[in-house]
Inverse folding.
């Protein structure tokens, strides 16, 4: 329909299903119209950046085989205008500000 904004495409880099569910629940409560895709690995993340074409990335900082710093570096290199929101978890304030 004319005049309707498309849903925001959110790429969620998160390896803990319970954390992903919590994030999704908060997004639904906010009333944001969105479509999301959750990935856990470097390979899936890179593929999703190209195929899913997100409007924003929400990234856990600490993942089992891949971390938020690497994800941020990939986005800055390949998609420099794509916003990344880091979900710091146990990350300290200084490290969070640095990111």
């Amino acid at each position: 329909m004319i005049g309707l904004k498309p849903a925001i495409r959110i790429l969620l880099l998160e390896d803990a299903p319970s954390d992903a569910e919590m994030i999704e629940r908060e997004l639904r409560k906010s009333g944001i119209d969105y479509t999301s895709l959750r990935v856990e690995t470097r390979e899936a993340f890179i593929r999703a950046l190209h195929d899913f074409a997100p409007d924003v990335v929400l990234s856990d900082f600490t993942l089992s085989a891949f971390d938020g710093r690497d994800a941020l570096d990939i986005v800055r290199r390949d998609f420099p205008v794509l916003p990344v929101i880091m979900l710091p978890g146990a990350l300290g304030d200084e490290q969070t500000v640095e990111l």
